[in-house]
Amino acid sequence: MSLRFKRHYPLLVLLVVSILVLTLALGDQRVIAYDFTRAGASGGSLTALAGFDLSGQVALFDDGVVHSIQISMDADDYDTMISTYQSTGEKDYFHADVIIDGVRVSDVGIRLKGNASLMTALGGRGGMAMGGAGGQFVPGQLQEGGQLPFDAENMPQRGNRLQPPAGMEVPEGMELPDMENLPQIPEGMPNPEDLPADGGWQGGGNMPFGGGGLGAAIPDGETKIPLLIKFDEFVSGQTYQGYTAVAIRTYGTTYDASMLQEPVTNAMFRLAGLPATLTAYAGVSLNDEAETLYTISEVIDETFLARNFTYPGGVLYKAELGSTLEYQGDDPSSYAGSFTQQTRQNDADLAPLIEFMQFLSESDDAAFEAQLPGYLDVDSFATYLALCSLLVNNDSIIGMNNNYYLYYDDQAQRFTLLYWDGNESLSKLGGGSNASTSLQGTQTQRSFRMGGGSNTLLSRFIANPTFYALYEQKVAEVYQQVYASGAITAQVEQYAALVGAANTARALVDAETYASAVSSVLDFITQRMDYLQAEGMSGEG
Q1: CA nearest 249: which of 192, 298, 178?
Q2: Given phi > 0 = left and psi -120 to 50 = alpha, else beta, which region is 401?
Q3: What pTM, to 2 d.p., does this model score?
Q4: Backbone angles phi, psi at 339, to 5 degrees
Q5: What is the H or E stretch that residue 68 is in?
Q6: Helix (H, G, I), strand (E, B), or coil: what is residue 486?
Q7: What is the pLDDT of residue 4?
Q8: What is the per-residue DSSP string for 375-406?
Q9: CATH code for 310-534?
Q10: What is the pLDDT of residue 13?
């Protein structure tokens, strides 16, 4: 044995023992170890080694810093990812490498993410975007592989009126409408037969909430696309700091210059004691493009449940757009487009959810009031409604029947409704007029149905005097926590200062545009407080 080997033998033993300890502690979970030595004399990126998690130097969702995420993927894969979605609607995963705050994670899965936000982004880059009435048709913006939202050439016409397909048989007892006297196509909306084949629809502002419409154009030159990074898609057990995925989020239905809505809304939900995903800001670059500001968000999965629930081993269901919780029988296939089971797919099913929906639809008023607390955490639900109301989060169960999860604790045999995706709150989905939207008193029944139609749980909950009184109690409590305390204004100012400082060093956003957008959010908060105080809310604790 050489002298040099003897000298380093204790270190070798220590290294082996350390690896054994980590193996016993972490089991078969594959995570990432890192070499924290800088590459080269002048510095460089941190590089990944095979091994175990040393967690990096910056917490992934530390919202006191603006993170850096560099994504590298094959350019052809990127084009295929876009064209596949535009032609089929599928969001397939592709291989990529990422560097997060200087720490490399190899062979992760990357896919497109979002619905309205994604269509808006792709519409601005040449793909199809959904539009509201009052928009305009923009020639030459349909990317190769994209599709018009209708068959402009073969759609039956009579002037500006649609005709039933040739040979259609009318069901017994049903009469066709008077096709000669149908309302005309709204002014400003083109007759489909007059549209060129190579254009796309750019949305207007005549949406249910007022404001920008689902196809609002993105400023020229923007390439921001919402993405999902899944660390374990191709490498089983791989995580980053314990997280299996991170959402890279951007536009919703209108151009989001402030990037404040979701981080601020999530912070207010947590302030009120409800589970909400962790968020932060990041400068994101794809294949050596310049960094651009995004928000990053935790996803609702097993990691989220473990952080927020004493018992995280239950069943998680995601509500799809328009999930009204209406009972449609015991066949699980009847709910295929309404709910997606996220956890325990191998040993659980929709049975608890179907039973809950049957109760909501068939129980009489007395049974509903007496038994609902056995099915649902009603205190949490009332707080959720109060927050959505006060923050004007209409892209939720109160408006679009959208963006919520249901977590079933099969030990307590009770559901908790979980908030998700607040990037359309704080007036963003409806323009500044929503500062005067009342979700209390006589207007509640109407306002809770803006956009998405009735929801069985919501309709019965607010119609019940006992539960409605609980909701009003939560409105008063949340108003104090969020508005009267100054918490929401302070949160906006904190994030704006953080982004402003990072922008000075890294040029992530246009400073003037960003400052104006922040000012608009602060104006909305002031207007919302003024309105709520006029409606009887007190600023006194």
Answers
A1: 298
A2: left
A3: 0.73
A4: -140, 145
A5: strand 66-72
A6: coil
A7: 53
A8: HB-HHHHHHHHHHHHHTT--SSTTTTS-SEEE
A9: 1.10.1070
A10: 57
